[in-house]
Amino acid sequence: MTSDRSKTGQGGAGKGGEGFQPEPAPEIARMGMNLFLLSLAVLFIATIIAIVIVRSQNPAWGENAPRIPDLAWLSTAVMVLVSVVSQVGWMAVRRDRMRIFIGSMVLVLLLGFLFLYLQERVWTRMLHSGEAQSFSASTSLHGWSIFAVGLLHALHIAGGLIFQGYVTIHAMLGGYWSLHCEQVRLVNQYWHFLDAIWIGLFAFMLWLA
Residue 10 falls within a domain, yes or no? Predict the structure, then answer.
């Protein structure tokens, strides 16, 4: 059932009154996010192009490189799940289904941390595998490439978790509803972007191997 919030655009403590802080104009926020994501896309594409060029000029590429652990497939599934659950939360808040929305935001946050943990385990297994005696970011071009790509994505996941943490806390405090949820839309867009980027990067790393 649609709550009074969707009818009035207000609701909860401080909404529409003292302490209420309106979101930035949607057009400005969306433009800013789109430009930010465009710059990130250029960064990732430039990194991939540079790695491809280096690989084409080095015949010893991949020497002594270990295989990517199967655990990387699980972390990829978790990343896809982050995007799916985020979309569920976005759809829920637009319908004022607050329990589903808040639960989704909490789950996205937990899944994001799980993804980072799984990635850490993937890198650790690669470094400690029997094939990796001379394989590292400092001694192998292949190793440098994989760790550079992985670290670049992990840093942006960490940034997304900060944003997601803010949105989750704000959601628990009743700060969003169907007519006031632009930040939820933006964080949802960010997760979809990182999901797409990771799938592309994972496929690229499999190709490198």
Answer: no
3-state per-residue secondary structure call for 157-174: HHHHHHHHHHHHHHHHCC
Question: Is position 104 within any domain?
Answer: yes
Instruction: For residue 105, give the nearest of 174, 24, 151 by alpha carbon.
Output: 174
Q: Give the global pTM.
A: 0.80
Burial of 5 (C-beta count, 10 Å sphere; 0-12/13-18/19+): buried
Residue with the two structure tokens 């799980």: 114
Tell whether 37 is covered by a domain. Answer: no
- Sequence-distant (6+) residues with CB within 8 A of 18 are none
How many angstroms separate the CA atoms of 128 and 124, rounded? 6
Residue-wise pLDDT tens digits, 51-70? 888 777 776 666 666 678 89
Please check whether residue 4 lies inside any domain of the structure.
no
Give the tens place of pLDDT for each residue, 124-134. Answer: 887 776 555 55
